[in-house]
Amino acid sequence: MGSPQSLNAHIAKAEANPLFVWFTGATALLEGQAVCYDYDYGTATAYDAKRTNRVELPSITNARWFAGVAARNYAAQANGQFVEINAPGSTCNILSKASTTIGVGRLTFECGGTYAGYFRYQGFEGAGSAVPLQTVDRSSTAGKCLARLEVGSQSGGVEVVTLAAAGGATVCMVGGVSYIVGTSISADATFTLADGTLSGQRKAFSVITTAVTTNNFVVTVTSGIQGIANAVPTTALATITMNALAEETVLEWAGVASAAGLWRVVFTAGSTLA
Question: Which residue among 121, 144, 249, 272 has its CA within the 20 to 30 Å range from the CA of 238?
Answer without folding.
Answer: 121
